[in-house]
Structure formats: C-alpha cells, structure tokens
Amino acid sequence: DTAVSQTPKYLVTQMGNDKSIKCEQNLGHDTMYWYKQDSKKFLKIMFSYNNKELIINETVPNRFSPKSPDKAHLNLHINSLELGDSAVYFCASSQERQASFYEQYFGPGTRLTVT
Amino acid sequence: GEDVEQSLFLSVREGDSSVINCTYTDSSSTYLYWYKQEPGAGLQLLTYIFSNMDMKQDQRLTVLLNKKDKHLSLRIADTQTGDSAIYFCAEQGTYKYIFGTGTRLKVLA
Question: Which candidate from A43, A55, A101 shows the least CB-CB separation from B95?
C-alpha cells in the first residue's frame, strides 16, 4: 500500500495557467509538508500543516496556496504559473513518535514543467 | 543562517568505503538525519543520530557526529552499485527539516 501518494506524477503546462497537485497519506500522521526540489536538487520546505492548521510558510509567493481538507490530505494550488516554478514538488508526512524525533515519509514527487 | 552544506559529488569504486560529509548550523537540533534519494523517487530515511551521541552504527552505515564543529558524516562500508543515489543530511527544526544541499554518490563497478 502506498503510504504517501501524489497526483499527478508529471505536469506540463504553460505560463499563466493555474494548476493543482494533490497529496494523500494513509499513515494516520498529523503533520504534512510540501517541499520544492529545484534542478540542482536543492530541497526546501515550503509549507507544513499540523492537524489541518498551517504551521510554516517559508516565504512562498502568494500564488501558492495549500489546502488541507482533512488530516490525510494536503493539496497545493498554484496560480499564474511562472517559468521559475518548474521543479519537483514533494509531499511528506510525519507523526511525532517520541519527544522531538519524527521520521518524514515522502511521496514520489510531482515534476512540474512550465513552458 | 540555515544553510546545511554538503559536497555535491562523490565517486567511489565498488567495495570501497564512502564518506559523505555535512556541516549544519543549528546547534539546538535534537536529531540529525540522513536520507537517500534514488533517481526519480522521493526521499527515504536511512539513519539518524541523537545529538548527544558521537557515533551510531547500523549494519554498513556509520554516522559520526562532532557537535562542537557541527559536523556530521555518513560512512558506507563496502559500497555497492545500488548505493548510487543522492544523500541528504537534515537537521531538525520546528515542524520542518532543513536539508543539506545533497551529495550525489556514484559507485563505479
């Protein structure tokens, strides 16, 4: 069974369009994340949600709007796509198992290409 | 700042040991992690170390932590071609990880 799944796996779209990426986890975790990995493989946190509440927004442009309808889902909507948004977007989830330790489980990634 | 630095590339011969280094910034990180990313896939946790430990061994993996210098290393013994991947160290923040720049390990047969 897939623990963290993302759809779509690939997304090719034109500048100016609006698109969404969906993420679902079946691990019962209470925290979910979005990361962006650029062409040099640098991986940066974008958002984290705990129990459907936004905890972290790492100076991401307003064009990016995450939505968590329930604890198992964290979707990412992007308005007015720009060339610089081309990257691989990873969803992840975690559950704090003991004080301060938590393992993050990553989805397979969504490769977004903006032309 | 929050930059976690790693050397970008490492090439070793099959059967040799690989050592991947990481310099982190937040001395208050309770745990430090090593993740592996295979081509076209997400990241998977390899191992981790609690900040009050100097060393942790897990089969072919040895993690060394020098807290004074904020230096973390991952040694892979008897490196195999299946170990070819990108390796990320990560320090733990509040509700986030801060990942290193990643080291691309290439294992030559």
Answer: A55
Q: Would you tell me which residues 21-80 of chain A have a C-beta closer than 8 angstroms to some C-beta of chain B?
A: 31, 33, 35, 40-45, 48, 50, 55-56, 58
Of B13, B9, B33, B37, nearest to B93 by C-alpha is B33
Give, for all 109 residues of chain B, the pLDDT tens digit.
457 999 999 999 999 999 999 999 887 778 999 999 998 888 999 999 998 899 999 999 999 999 999 999 999 999 999 999 999 999 887 778 889 999 999 999 8
Beta carbons within 8 Å of B26's beta carbon, 6+ residues apart: B2, B91, B93, B98
Give the N- to C-terminal CA distance of chain B in Å, as an integer.
Answer: 39
Q: What is the mean pLDDT of chain A?
A: 91
Q: Could you tell me where the beta strands, DSSP code E, fall in B1-109?
A: 5-6, 9-13, 18-23, 31-37, 43-50, 55-58, 61-66, 71-76, 85-93, 96-99, 103-108
For B85, nearest residue in chain A (alpha carbons)? A41
Buried b or exposed e, range B2-18, using 16+ CB within 10 angstroms = eebebeeebebeeeeeb
DSSP notation for A34-80? EEEE-TT--EEEEEEEETTEEEEE-S--TTEEEEEEETTEEEEEE-S
Quote the DSSP letter at residue B81: G
Look at A16 and A53; give whichever has higher pLDDT.
A16
CB contact under 8 A, A45 and B43: no
